[in-house]
Sequence to fold (229 residues):
Amino acid sequence: MSKVLIIEDETSIAELEKDYMELSGFEVDSVADGEEGLKKALEEDYDLIVLDLMLPGMDGFDVCKQIRDEKNVPIIIVSARKEEIDKIRGLGLGADDYMTKPFSPSELVARAKAHMARYERLVSSSQEKNKVIEIRGLKIDTTARRVWIRGEEKNFTTKEFDLLVFLASHPNHVYTKDELFREIWGMESVGDIATVTVHIKKIREKIEADSSNPQYIETIWGVGYRFQA
Ligand code: CA
Fold:
């Protein structure tokens, strides 16, 4: 359940906001003091904060700025101050929205939902960022399937790329050619494990400064290969 914090010193307004938010299925905490509100906002995890500006303890501008310095949470300012300058200041301090009193509680709820949905999208898209492996000048973007060595991009075939990523994802682990063959070419594959040797050679030509003295994929004689972290 999404959690909302209301920081508002006028009891009737705080109750109105709370009622509408709860009717929309949110869990609501409400505090009437700026300083106390800031403390709660920083200590607990809220999905949205509704903030008044004229508050005892600490004014809403300061509360807004300090929450924003520490947290990525949508903040809606609801204030009796109608001056454009207050709106500009509030948004400049990191508030996501500014509504003036008297306000429509259902519009507040609609805006609250929109901001929460937008933040959720932002968070999930940043989590879907490409997975990148970086080891001593070798950079592999496993999502985009691109490889750079010392800043220069190299082209890899599908199997070369899969083999490199598998080894680089398990650094310092020794794999036999059989294990690598099964891992990359699959159990059902018919083929010669010498394929692994050929692919390792191709990868080394692309990423090693000196293929005869490899710094990334090391040959463990009589056993297999190991990626050095
Ligand atoms: Ca107030």
